[in-house]
Amino acid sequence: MxxxxxxxxxxxxxLLYIQKLNLKTAFLSKSDxxxxxxxxxxxxxxxxxMWWIIFNRQGSINGWQxxxxxxxxxxxxxxxxxxxxLARGVQFIPEYIxxxxxxxxxxxxxxxxxxxxxxxxxxxxxxxxPTAFIFYFMSGIVSWQTFAIFIFCSLxxxxxxxxxxxxxxxxxxxxxxxxxxxxxIFMAFLTFALQPASIFTGWYHVFFLNIIPAGxxxxxxxxxxxxxxxxxxxxxxxxVAGFFLLAVFAFSRGLRRYSxxxxxxxx
Length: 267
Fold this sequence. Notes:
It contains 12 helices and no strands. The protein is mostly helical.
C-alpha cells in the first residue's frame, strides 16, 4: 500500500513537472502566448454571439433556450481546455507511429499512455477557461449546486473528449494514413456536441447519444443542471466510463500490435 501511494505521488509530481515545462515553453515568447489566448477568447465569444443572433430570431429551438446553449458552450469550453492543456498528446498518436517517435515514449518505465498523453499541450486553449465561466454566469442559472454540477460535468466532458480522441487516434495502429480521418471524426464529434440537443429526435437522438456520444457533453449535463436526477447522473457516468475503458483497451491492443512488429517491423 505504501509503494502504491508512493507511485501515485511520483506520477502526480511527473504530471506537474511536465505541465511546468509546457508553460515555460509557451512563454518563451510572451507576446505570442498572449495573442494566442486572446484570439481563442475572441473566437469563443464570436461563436456565442452567432448563437445569440439565432436564438434572438427564433426565440427557442424545440424548447431549447439560449441559456441552455450558453451552458453547453460553457461545459464544452471548460472540458476542451482541460483536455487540450493536459493531455493533447493523444491527438498526435498517428504521427508518432508514422515517424517511429512513439518508441521513445513507450520505452520508459512510466505508464505508456500517460507519457503519450502528456507529450503535447495547447497553450492557446487557456483562453477557453475564462469564456467557460463567462458563459456560465451569463446563462443566469447560477447557484452553488449548479456551479458544482457545471465543474463536475466539465471534468466528465474532458474525460470523454480525451477518450474519443484516443479511440479514433488508435486507428493508426491498424492502418496507415489515418491522421486526417481521425481529425475529421473528432471534428464531427465536436460539431454534434455544440448543437442544441433538442434538434435531435427519434433515431437521430439515439445516434446522437450513443453512436456519437455528443449527448454526454450537451444533453445529460444540461438535464442535470435543469433538474438533478440520480438516473441522469448514472447514465452520464456509465457512458463516460464506458468510452474511457474502450479507448484504453484500444490503445493497449494497438500498442501490443505496434511492439510485436507485425505492422511496423521489429523495433
